[in-house]
Design a protein that fits this description.
The complex is a heterodimer. Chain A is mainly beta. Chain A has helices at residues 2-27, 188-191, 209-215, and strands spanning 39-46, 53-58, 60-61, 74-79, 82-85, 87-89, 94-96, 107-113, 120-125, 132-134, 140-142, 146-150, 157-164, 169-175, 183-187, 196-207, 224-225, 227-228, 230-248. Chain A has 3 domains: 1-31; 39-125, Sandwich (Immunoglobulin-like), CATH 2.60.40; 132-248, Immunoglobulin-like (Sandwich). Chain B folds into 4 domains: 2-91, Carboxypeptidase-like, regulatory domain (Immunoglobulin-like), CATH 2.60.40.1120; 106-205, Beta Complex (Ferric Hydroxamate Uptake Protein, Chain A, domain 1), CATH 2.170.130; 206-631, TonB-dependent receptor, beta-barrel domain (Maltoporin, Chain A, Beta Barrel), CATH 2.40.170.20; 638-666, no CATH class. Chain B has a 22-stranded antiparallel beta barrel. Chain B has a 5-stranded mixed beta sheet with strand order 8-13-14-11-12. Chain B has a 4-stranded antiparallel beta sheet with strand order 3-2-5-6, covered by helices on one side. Classes of the chains: A mainly beta, B mainly beta. Chain A: Pfam families: DUF4249. Chain A: InterPro entries: DUF4249.
Chain lengths: 249, 740
């Protein structure tokens, strides 16, 4: 009798434990991360452009069909006394400024508003202007030469673009400067090895840190280079140029 | 006077028997063997005695002997399995273990349990271990073990003293290295393991093959759907031997099919295992055991074009090892065991392009260790035992990668580990309060580091059937795998020694236990635990194939906490268990804590088997067993959004957008609940005058489609999230055994 009672008691306890267990399992949350769409901005201010261009797009939850870029946002660019509400250009699918010559070491702010999205803010500081020491106008440049120029303040990255006098593009490469170099020296032969001769204009483009962060992210995180309240990039460049005779043999 | 005995179980479950009961009839003298099968009774008065050796499921052995004054008597006894249920044997080995040992989180498996648990194609030790409390598996086909928040490389796996570096290699992890027919004894320490084990952070899986039948030649042949196995046992002068083998033959069947149909199809894959063991008793005090293992998977593929060899792929991987064990009784109070072992895990890939030799590829990866281990047990008196030992390992990790004879890397890393331990087990209050305290000291030559790992176990038997346990300890690991242990699928493990500049991965365990025996065959345990990790190493990306040294690994911390419940009943005709684990695992490598992919919150397993009554036609007196599990989902990361990533090209000053994705946090989602029922039916038969049996397994009986993972198809707009199920239908398998 006592044994039966004990077995019944154990059975009851086990039953109660089972119910508790099932409740616990049922309460286990298969949670999902909510994703709120954000504005996706892309713009690179450049001193060689008269009109600056901004793309306003958006992010899409994975189960939502894609659409075109946003054409009815309020886009305002300001800085250095300049303020402009950008107009959308249906031909280029971008927002365009009034003529704007960006100034070196100037911070520009972009505000983008669109119903249904958080307002996106972005800032960029244009890299400083700089002086090219070699090659100068009409110099000859060979593989053995070294391109020499003063560091652009606030620049995190450079690119070198060779444009033939006929308009065709020649060699191209990127260069990441040492943070402590005040004088940039580029041994040409270390970066270029294709034979090429002719009259070229070399465009040396200095990029700000937002641009660097966007193209060389430290991890797989979302690109938010200079942008808050959205994703994308607001970067800036400063370009200097020199025309030379290239003799790459 | 002392009586010493080494007990060996024969035949089907043949292994050195831990916790066999021994007593002198009509006296109060008696005890049980220890985990090495060794046993001693002190202070026996001179006289004539019947010494009874009993173990559940085996015929008791009664030895009639005269014990004289100042005589030391040594007996080697072998027990044979009982044909009928032996009702008088009421005290099981597990029950004896409960009374005699200070061990928490320790589970022993019988070969019957391993073979009776329903399994895909054949019974498997690792599959059985996955049903234990605290053990998590990542999906329906996984053969990896995540024990109490640990990754698979934190498990020490031993087979006859040989370290098995990759126990789950066969057929993508479907089969483990352990031939189930050859397994004689298997135990799992899920945490808080004692000082005689080390070099891993989470658990110990210790497997011994059968001892081999020393009375007569016997054999067993198994033919299954995918593999066939054989096992031979028999006597040799002063000993016994065992030889087992297993091979898949899908490749041969496909070859035969292609010949019949004149098709050009082939399956260029097979695996095989060979296991061998020889026991040799030099004297009643000296016993030698030589054991060997060779386990290899082969993928060999030759592409021909118009009779000319075009390209060839040869991939081979496997475990192999050899051990020599010497069990020695120095004197009635002093017992020792010495093991010398060699172990190797090899992976080799060779690709030959006969049309363009510049594409030739050669990858080679292996780990080899030589181990010398000595364990000694000194029986101070009935209430006091001292264990001590020393363990030396010389290890080499080699990896080579070259393409067309251009060597990308070719490295060989050596490491030496010397460990020594001392542990003392005392009954502070006889049969009530016992304490096992130990210290393991380790010297690791890379960086010349010492580690002192204390261990403590306490058992308080506050009622005859109820005990509280406590275990705590520090654990160190000097060898880690380079491939991610969070991968859903991984066949190879690439081991590397912890480098000179890295801190040694360390874990601290605290386990509390409550153990209740309802009768002599039913036990219930509750074990809350907490485990804290330091200096864990993990690869920077999920999937690494042949890789670089450990310096590229990220360093992190972690912890695991949970509570395990275990109810187990073991009888001759009914067995089963219910295990439930609630666990919470977190790791941190750069950034905050996250749940690793094996962080399963709830995990319930029910296993039940019984002998089918005589009244059931066709399968009367057969065995039916079932396994059902219910588990909550594992965490995973998924693409949650996408956006156009615009490029600035200073040459053209134009922007082009390419779709890129936004991924969730790595543990932002959890897979849905999974559950599954598997069945196993086995029926004994006689064929051609021989004993045999046939069996049928059905996996996923009610066709539950458990989702293993999701993938996103970006060819669609919007992208389509696709579910992947590993067992899309109920999968039957069958086979038969023949014993002679």
């Amino acid at each position: 009798m006592k044994k039966k009672s004990r077995i019944r008691s154990i059975g009851t306890t086990l039953f109660q434990l089972s119910i508790l267990l099932l409740v616990c399992i049922a309460c286990e949350r298969n949670y999902e991360e909510e994703f709120e769409p954000q504005l996706n901005i892309f713009g690179v201010l450049a001193n060689i452009l008269q009109t600056q261009e901004i793309i306003v797009d958006r992010t899409y939850p994975i189960d939502e069909p894609s659409g075109p870029v946003i054409d009815d946002a309020l886009v305002v660019l300001s800085g250095n006394g300049f303020i402009d509400t950008l107009e959308f250009s249906y031909s280029s699918q971008k927002y365009l400024t009034e003529p704007l010559n960006v100034a070196p070491l100037t911070t520009y702010e972009l505000i983008v508003e669109k119903d249904g999205f958080d307002t996106a803010h972005a800032t960029t500081t244009v890299p400083g202007n700089f002086t090219i020491f070699f090659p100068l106008f009409n110099d000859t440049l060979t593989f053995q030469d070294t391109i020499l120029f003063a560091r652009s303040t606030a620049a995190a990255l450079y690119s070198f673009v060779f444009v033939h006098y006929t308009g065709g593009f020649g060699p191209f490469f990127w260069y990441e400067p040492d943070p402590f170099d005040s004088l940039i020296q580029i041994p040409v032969g270390d970066y270029l090895d294709e034979p090429c001769t002719g009259l070229f204009t070399i465009y040396i483009v200095a990029y700000d840190s937002n641009f660097y962060e966007y193209y060389y992210p430290e991890d797989d995180s979302i690109a938010q280079a200079g942008v808050t309240g959205g994703v994308g990039l607001l970067g800036s460049t400063w370009t200097e140029a020199t025309s030379v005779y290239v003799l790459f043999e | 006077m002392y009586l010493i005995a080494i007990v060996c179980l024969l035949h089907a479950y043949g292994s050195v028997s831990a916790y066999t009961n021994i007593y002198l009839e009509n006296t109060t003298l008696g005890s049980a063997t220890n985990d090495k099968g060794y046993y001693i009774i002190h202070k026996i008065p001179p006289g004539t005695y019947n010494i009874i050796f009993s173990y559940i499921g085996y015929e008791s052995s009664i030895i009639d002997t005269i014990i004289e004054e100042n005589q030391n008597l040594t007996l080697n006894v072998e027990l044979s399995p009982s044909v009928l249920e032996v009702e008088e044997v009421t005290v099981s080995a597990e029950r004896t273990r409960f009374e005699r040992t200070v061990e928490v989180s320790h589970i022993v498996f019988t070969p019957r349990e391993i073979k009776s648990v329903p399994s895909l194609f054949e019974g498997d030790l690792i599959k059985t271990l996955q049903l234990m409390p605290g053990v998590v598996t990542m999906h329906d086909l996984s053969n990896k073990l995540h024990v109490r928040g640990g990754s698979p490389d934190e498990n020490l796996v031993l087979l006859d003293g040989i370290t098995v570096y990759n126990p789950s290699t066969h057929l993508g992890g479907l089969f483990s290295t352990f031939n189930p027919d050859a397994v004689g004894y298997a135990e799992l320490y899920a945490g808080g393991f004692p000082a005689n084990f080390g070099d891993r952070l989470s658990s110990v899986i210790n497997v011994d093959t059968k001892e081999g039948n020393s009375k007569k030649y016997t054999g067993k042949v198994n033919v299954g759907l995918v593999t066939s196995k054989f096992l031979l046992e028999g006597p040799i002068p002063n000993g016994s031997f065992l030889l087992g083998g297993r091979r898949t033959y899908f490749d041969a069947l496909v070859w035969l099919y292609s010949k019949i149909r004149n098709d050009d199809i082939s399956l260029p894959y097979y695996f095989y295992d060979l296991i061998a063991k020889v026991n040799f008793n030099v004297s009643s005090e000296n016993r030698f055991t030589l054991a060997g293992l060779s386990s290899t998977d082969v993928v060999s593929f030759l592409e021909n074009t118009q009779g000319e060899a075009d390209e060839q792929i040869d991939l081979e991987w496997g475990n192999r090892g050899l051990s020599l064990r010497w069990r020695l009784v120095f004197n009635p109070k002093f017992y020792g065991e010495m093991i010398g072992a060699w172990s190797n895990f090899l992976t080799h890939l060779e690709y030959i392009d006969y049309t363009d030799t510049t594409e030739n590829l050669n990858l080679y990866e292996d780990i080899t260790d030589y181990t010398l281990k000595c364990d000694f047990n000194y029986f101070w008196d009935e209430n006091h035992t001292i264990d001590f030992g020393i363990d030396g390992k010389v290890m080499t990790v080699g990896y080579n990668y070259d393409i067309t004879e251009e060597v990308f890397f070719d490295q060989e890393q050596k490491m030496n580990i010397v460990s020594a331990y001392l542990q003392n087990k005392s009954f502070l209050l006889p049969n009530i309060l016992s304490v096992k305290a130990g210290l393991r000291g380790v010297y690791y030559d890379r960086g010349k580091r010492f580690s002192f790992d204390p261990r403590l176990g306490i058992k308080y038997l506050f009622k005859p059937n109820t005990a509280f346990n406590l275990a705590a300890g520090k654990y160190s690991q000097f060898l880690v795998t380079m491939n991610s242990q969070e991968s859903y699928f991984s066949v190879f493990d690439f081991w590397r020694p912890v480098s000179e500049t890295q801190k040694v991965p360390t874990a601290y365990h605290v386990v509390a236990g409550f153990e209740q025996w309802f009768d002599e065959k039913t036990k219930f345990t509750i074990e809350p635990y907490y485990k804290k990790y330091y200096n864990l190493l993990t690869p920077a990306i999920d999937e690494i194939f042949f890789s670089e040294p450990t310096d590229s690994l990220k360093v992190g911390d972690g912890y695991a906490a949970g509570i395990d419940f275990f109810l187990k009943k073991t009888m001759e005709d009914v067995f089963g268990w219910i295990s439930y684990s609630f666990s919470y695992t977190k790791r941190k490598f750069e950034g905050g804590y996250y749940s690793p992919r094996y962080d399963r919150r709830h995990n319930l397993n029910i296993v039940f088997g019984f002998t089918i009554p005589h009244s059931v036609p066709l399968i009367r007196n057969g065995t039916l067993s079932a396994r059902w599990y219910l588990a909550t989902g594992l965490p995973y990361a998924q693409d949650i959004a996408r956006y156009r990533y615009y490029y600035w090209d200073p040459r053209f000053s134009t922007n082009q957008g390419e779709w890129t994705t936004i991924r969730s946090a790595r543990d932002a989602f959890r897979l849905p609940l999974s559950h599954r029922l598997d069945l196993h039916i086995e029926k004994n038969i006689r064929i051609f005058g021989l004993d045999g049996s046939w069996y049928i397994d059905v996996i996923n009986v009610y066709n539950r489609k458990n989702i293993a993972f999701y993938n996103v198809d970006y060819d669609e707009d919007p992208p389509e999230i696709k579910e992947y199920v590993l067992l899309p239908i109920p999968i039957p398998s069958f086979g038969f055994n023949l014993r002679f």
